[in-house]
Amino acid sequence: MNRLLSNLRSFAALLAIAAVVSGTARAADLSEPVILVASSLLDPTSFQQAVILATPLDDGSHIGFIINKPIGVKLQELLPDDRAAGKVKESVYLGGPAFLPAVFALTRTPPASAGAAVRLLPDLFAVMDSDAIDGIIATTPNDARFFLGMMVWQPGALEEEVHQSVWELRPADAEVVLHAKSPGLWKSLRGPGPYI
Questions:
Q1: Model pLDDT, residue 193
Q2: Residue 96 backbone phi and psi in degrees, to 5
Q3: Does 160 lie in the same domain as 126?
Q4: Each residue of 175-184: pLDDT tens digit?
């Protein structure tokens, strides 16, 4: 009888811990940048196995970029009149469905012109101004990643997707955004890991 009572207490303690852990995952702090890792709920969609950097804006909305979907097209093909675009070695990535066919650059160094970039992380900026992007292409073409389109969530929308377990959350990291190789990135971030 004592052993049964002890086992029930242990089981109850495990359930309490699980409730705290799952509650923490659902109530994730989206007031800070995060990496979103697609759950299996997105398998039949164009977001299957997507990995996205998402950053909050002051109005409660979020913006982001899919970081693991190269489109197999070089920047030179998208900007044929820009000779310097031929210096960019890496393929352009599909950033998301919003603002297509606009090209964006993610880089560690913000452009000099105010308003040309949005800070995504302390050491990562999304450059949205075409003149500033031209400057990056001309001076440091391989220190940035280039994206076609981006992700946009209205206030509360990303929180609802996380609540519905559409995304697993990971800590945001500029190194992952700029240097991770696309094949295998989703798989390496799935399952046990640094949940937030």
A1: 53
A2: 155, 175
A3: yes
A4: 999 988 888 8
Which residues partner with 107 through β-bridges? Answer: 125, 144
Q: Is 195 a member of any domain?
A: no
132-149 pLDDT, tens digit each: 999 999 999 999 999 999
Alpha-carbon span 164 to 25, nearest angstrom: 11
Distance CA 58, CA 47 (A): 26
Dump the DSSP string for 62-115: EEEEESS-EEEEEHHHH-TT-GGGGG--SEEEE--SEEEEEEEEEESS--SSTT
Instruction: Report the alpha-carbon angle 29-104-49, nearest 5.
Output: 55
Average pLDDT estimate for 23-48: 83
Close Cβ partners of 49 (under 8 Å, ≥ 6 residues apart): 38, 42, 68, 186, 187
pLDDT greater than 60 at residue 39: yes
pTM of the model: 0.82
What are 67's two structure tokens? 């970081």
Report d(CA 109, CA 145) in Å as an integer.
Answer: 12
The answer on 3 and 81 residing in a single domain is no
From the list 97, 93, 134, 145, the residue with the least C-alpha distance to 112 is 134
Do 153 and 62 meet the contact criterion of CB atoms below 8 Å apart? yes
- State the CB neighbour count (10 A cutoff) for residue 142: 11
Q: Do 98 and 169 reside in the same domain of the chain?
A: yes
Instruction: Kindly give the residue spans of alpha helices, DSSP state H, lying in 35-95.
Output: 75-78
